[in-house]
């Protein structure tokens, strides 16, 4: 990370320490007193941006603080080393932990800091501190300028198609043009996503110019991040019923109807029934879930002759952005389209029935592919 000028650096450090003291005091409330004890570091030969003292009836905790303007995973190694060294080299008789405070702290950096048991604070008010029985976990929006594209929302619209394409090509090299073609989106959108993933150190690159290629090196972390967002998304789902003599053949029955009607828009089966065909695990599944483009649910219901119901539904229609319909897998024996294994996995995270078991089964298969790559 680049160091800023001494004057601006001092002002920024003071602003960050003041904001940190306020955030800690608000989090602990009357249970503890919090004050800036940075003056105690002067004259002891310790290069440190600050120290906060938290006094509670049960203990006193010293928080050694390193201040940065922006922090991404690639920036952490030196900062964490410095914190550990300064805590070790400073004489103190109380418990002590390290804290990294930043104007902008990427989600990847936050996660790595937690894994290394380092506290964190972001100027927007996000605060994480864990020590013995104390746990503070506050998430707030970052202070970012409108022109700053760092920390973009990765899992929305066309960007989600880029994420899907990178996962499907895990550990494979792609030029920006190849990625844009696979994701069916613009080179600019691909560039935004790749910039963010590069900052998180989840992709690496080789070459330059139009021939520059990138490779996804951490599909596990990218899928985990997508999974976290997926659990909280809201989408248009509708419940329907259709009669079939043998429920075991529901998907094949629906696919034949769709094929007979010459449907000219993309669709795909998802959910437990579809996943269990591609990765058999369960002895039986119920119902069918079909992904259709946004605004196409009624059209698909007409094609299939479905009846809307509030109870007893055996067909669910889910309206989605194009990302969920990329990389459809077609059955070799029937005109049946299945969602990609990544979409199947994400849709099984809803916790219904034995979906969790099936999700873990598919995740194991995906991880084995990553290892082979």
Automatic annotation (TrEMBL):
Which InterPro entries does the record cross-reference, listed alphabetically? Answer: AbiEi_2 (IPR019238)
- Source taxon at top rank: Bacteria
One Pfam family from the record = AbiEi_2
Protein name from the UniProt record: Transcriptional regulator
Species: Aeromonas simiae
């Amino acid at each position: 990370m680049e160091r800023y000028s001494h004057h601006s650096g001092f002002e920024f450090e003071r602003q960050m320490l003041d904001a940190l003291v306020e955030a800690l005091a608000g989090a602990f409330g009357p249970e503890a007193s919090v004050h800036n004890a940075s003056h105690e570091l002067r004259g002891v030969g310790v290069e440190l941006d600050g120290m906060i003292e938290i006094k509670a009836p049960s203990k006193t905790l010293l928080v050694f603080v390193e201040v940065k303007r922006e922090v991404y995973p690639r920036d952490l190694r030196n900062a964490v080393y410095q914190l550990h060294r300064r805590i070790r080299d400073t004489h103190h008789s109380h418990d002590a932990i390290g804290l990294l405070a930043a104007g902008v702290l990427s989600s990847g950096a936050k996660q790595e800091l937690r894994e290394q048991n380092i506290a964190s604070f972001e100027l927007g008010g996000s605060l994480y501190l864990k020590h013995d029985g104390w746990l503070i976990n506050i998430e707030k929006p970052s202070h970012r300028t409108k022109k700053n594209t760092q920390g973009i929302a990765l899992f929305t619209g066309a960007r989600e198609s880029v994420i899907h394409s990178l996962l499907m090509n895990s550990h494979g090299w792609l030029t920006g043009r190849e990625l844009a073609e696979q994701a069916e989106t613009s080179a600019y959108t691909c560039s935004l996503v790749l910039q963010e993933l590069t900052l998180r150190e989840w992709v690496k690159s080789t070459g330059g110019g139009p021939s520059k290629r990138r490779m996804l090196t951490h599909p596990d972390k990218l899928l985990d991040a997508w999974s976290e967002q997926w659990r909280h998304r809201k989408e248009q789902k509708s419940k329907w019923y259709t009669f079939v003599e043998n429920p075991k053949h529901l998907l094949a029955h629906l696919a034949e109807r769709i094929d007979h009607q010459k449907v000219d828009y993309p669709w795909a089966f998802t959910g437990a029934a579809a996943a269990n065909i591609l990765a058999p695990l369960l002895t039986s599944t119920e119902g069918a879930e079909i992904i259709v483009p946004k605004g196409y649910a009624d059209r698909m219901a007409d094609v299939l002759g479905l009846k809307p119901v509030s109870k007893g539904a055996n067909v669910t229609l889910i309206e989605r952005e194009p990302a969920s319909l990329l990389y459809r897998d077609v059955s070799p024996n029937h005109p049946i389209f299945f969602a990609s294994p990544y979409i199947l996995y994400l849709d099984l995270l809803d916790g219904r029935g034995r979906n969790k078991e099936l999700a873990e089964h598919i995740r194991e298969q995906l991880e084995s592919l990553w290892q082979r790559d």
